[in-house]
Amino acid sequence: QHYYITNNLSNMSLLRVLLAPLFWLRAIFFVFNIFFASILHTLTLIPIYPLKFISPTLYVTIECFLHSKAGETFIPVFTLFPKLKIYSDTLSDLEPITRKRAMMMVNHQDSGDVPMMMCIGAYFGLAHTTTWIVDEMFKWTPFGVPSQWHNDFFSREGNKEVVVKRLKQHFSTTYFDRGLKWLIFFPEGGYLKNRGERARNWAARNNLPVLYNCVLPRTTAFIAITQAFRGEVKAIPEQVEDIVDVTLFYKGPRDLCMTDILMGSYLDTEVYAHFRTYKMCDLPKEELELQTWLYDRYQEKEDMITRFKENGEFKEGNSFSQIHQSPGRLLGSLVFWYITAFFVYDLYKTMFRHLLSITSGFL
After folding, report:
1. pLDDT digit of tens for each residue in the chain (363 aa)?
2. Among 15, 38, 147, 269, whose Cα sits 20 to 30 Å from the Cα of 231?
């Protein structure tokens, strides 16, 4: 399967100059709403947190809904000027994956990859049941705070055995219990622009594939997740059948970062996402063979991106059809959060007044 995200404007310097004030207003507008939704998300969940112990199912339902609404504040950057569109050749092979659990393995080009995958997940209606493995440095960002409530996994460098233990504990206590579906993670552990040269030097010294269009992946997390999802961990009785290899490629001056997206400074950039599905049961059992399998997938990513740069296609004869992201998603999410703000303000004002009255009674 192939997804293709592109815009319908050309990169004209005069247009940039004329619309520069609009770009800044756009950035301020989105940054404000992203922080606003993140803070309000937390303020909304605090009063209902006791539900987690009284009625866990109801709490998870509410939390997942609020999480999806918070995530939607990141998505509208693709639905307003400059407009982006999503294309696909066929959805028949991928649609079954949207109805069950799957591991989404994505190459990490830049910070724009995260809202790009949010955009794709939202299109399939999975924003509320998607979970992430992200670096711990993002834990207290507007994206990270809702993710903490959602029990996403924040990775950090450390002892291999400790990392594996934390991952397996996470899946045994969180992923399956909360009914989550897509697990999205970036095996490289960092952006191409930051880790590319260091990874190439390391690969050359260890006689491994030297990649220029993506980063040679780290394997510890991948192996731990695969073992957990195949039911090889005793505490995890369920299994995940599918792994989806997602290859992102930015056709333009550079890979997109969040600043580019917020400012709209990517008028001539096209973003492609290629999907390939594998069955977990078909993957090797031994850790060394799993590591080789992962390296082979990244060599394929390298070859596909190289071919696309040369011929404008991942594979010979591939084609794309159009899928629209509804601009109404922006309006709906903003209306929801502003209405919620009214009720949350009134709730906290009432709580504060009761607290003052109780406190004054003791004085």
Report:
1. 444 444 433 444 555 556 667 777 777 888 888 888 899 999 999 999 999 999 998 999 999 999 988 887 766 555 443 344 444 444 556 677 777 888 899 999 888 888 888 877 877 778 788 889 888 888 888 888 999 999 898 887 766 677 777 887 787 778 877 888 888 999 988 888 888 899 999 999 999 999 999 999 988 888 888 887 876 665 565 678 888 888 888 877 777 777 777 776 666 677 778 888 888 888 998 989 999 999 999 999 999 889 888 887 776 655 555 555 666 777 788 889 899 999 999 999 998 988 888 877 665
2. 147
Residue 245 phi, psi dihedral angles, 5° rounding: -90, 115
- 32, 39, 111, 29: which is closest to 70 by C-alpha? 39
Phi-psi region of 103 (alpha: psi -120 to 50; beta: other; left: phi over 0): beta
CB 104 within 8 A of CB 141: no
Q: At residue 62, what is the residue type?
A: I
CA 237 to each of CA 183, 200, 286: distance values in angstroms, whole numbers, following the listed order: 18, 39, 20
| Parallel/antiparallel/unpaired status of strands 153-155 and 182-185 | unpaired
The DSSP 8-state label assigned to residue 309 in this structure reads: H
Q: In whole angstroms, what is the distance from residue 46 CA to residue 37 CA?
A: 14
Q: Looking at this protein, which amino acid is placed at residue 94?
A: L
